[in-house]
Specification:
Strand order of the largest sheet: 2-1-3
Radius of gyration: 20 Å
Order of helices and strands: EEHHHHHHHHEHHHHH
Number of domains: 1
Strand content: under 5%
Largest sheet: 3 strands, mixed
Shape: globular
Distance between the termini: 23 Å
Length: 346
């Protein structure tokens, strides 16, 4: 699979093509290509502009955030998660202390290392669940949330080495990045960690083609089960959010109850199916289904937001968008199945 190597040049991703973790890896040294600092600055400025709009022109800011930016992220995670991880504004904030040489570079405490992923799951689901209660209708509050998250990412980089204080532990987007990006279609070399500090287990930036599969194959249940649970929750969570939770005409408590029942139904089905299929296969199926459900329900949200910005009706765009997501998912699923087979033989 063509990709961008650690040196920034076009190369071949041998791990994605079938070579699981090489026995030795060379540390990432030197400076990243100039394109990455420029791209990081552009994305960070765009992030800051959205935050300003959330306070100054809330309707516009909310449209850009929930109507454009968020709908584009899952497909980006599926196709080229390394692209996002290289330019993510939260990652830029997290790595700023290292760039300025003011980071204390502490080892993360055991609880953060062990329970970072469940914390990230709780933050992700908590933030999404806050939307029906009004988070996605209140620009200043959403702007304040983004600033708090940005500050947390910076503090994590100020205190801990590498990405162990945020990106690889408690970032709310981490579970989604790893679930959708388990076998990237396009890979990019890591633009941040030069040199690699070995700050996390199964590093997603070092070995994007098999890091998540290694997580799911880990012997420690405390490491493996939260990742299985996240995938098990996703389809029911998506269906419940779009069909029940966002219906403002119904009582909020009733919406949350229906939302929760959808999630429980999806998890129960996952448990039943796990008696017939491996969890590595089921997590891939559930993740792929959740992605397509997200764009089936969320496609109209994206096209409506795009129409408000462009002033042109683009409702028709939801169909090619859904078709693109489905085609990318089929490709992704075939690659994931190949990785799972090779892992099971080892």
């Amino acid at each position: 699979m063509p990709g961008i190597t650690e040196s920034g040049t076009v190369g071949v991703d041998h791990e994605a093509a079938g070579q699981l973790s090489p026995r030795r890896t060379s540390p990432i040294q030197g400076r990243p290509p100039l394109i990455w600092p420029v791209a990081q600055a552009v994305v960070f400025i765009a992030f800051a502009a959205v935050v300003v709009l959330l306070f100054a022109r809330p309707e516009t800011g909310l449209t850009l955030l929930f109507g454009i930016a968020i709908p584009l992220l899952p497909l980006t995670f599926l196709i080229a998660p390394g692209l996002w991880r290289n330019v993510c504004p939260l990652a830029s904030a997290n790595q700023l202390p290292r760039t300025l040489r003011i980071s204390r570079r502490l080892h993360p405490p055991k609880w953060l290392y062990s329970y970072g992923y469940p914390i990230a799951m709780a933050l992700f689901f908590g933030l999404v669940c806050a939307r029906p209660a009004g988070l996605d209708r209140n620009g200043p509050v959403m702007g304040a949330v983004l600033l708090v998250v940005l500050l947390a990412a910076f503090i994590g980089g100020l205190a801990f080495k590498g990405k162990s204080g945020w990106c690889s532990t408690v970032c709310p987007l981490l579970p989604l990045e790893r679930a959708y990006g388990r076998t990237p279609l396009i890979t990019f070399g890591n633009a941040h960690c030069r040199p690699c500090l070995g700050c996390t287990k199964n590093c997603y930036d070092r070995k994007p083609a098999n890091a998540y599969t290694a997580d799911l194959s880990d012997r420690a249940r405390s490491w493996r089960v939260p990742r299985e649970l996240f995938a098990a929750v996703l389809p029911g969570f998506v269906v419940g959010f779009f069909t029940i939770a966002t219906h403002a005409g119904q009582p909020l408590a009733g919406r949350y109850l229906g939302f929760g029942l959808c999630v429980l139904a999806g998890v129960a089905l996952f448990g039943a199916l796990s008696t017939f299929a491996s969890t590595t296969t089921l997590t891939a199926v559930y993740t792929g289904v959740a992605l397509n459900l997200f764009y089936w329900f969320g496609g109209p949200v994206f096209t409506a937001a795009l129409a408000r910005i462009l002033g042109v009706n683009v409702d028709w765009l939801r169909w090619p968008l859904s078709a693109t997501v489905l085609a990318a998912t089929v490709w992704w699923a075939s690659r994931t199945a190949g990785v799972n087979r090779r892992v099971s033989r080892r």
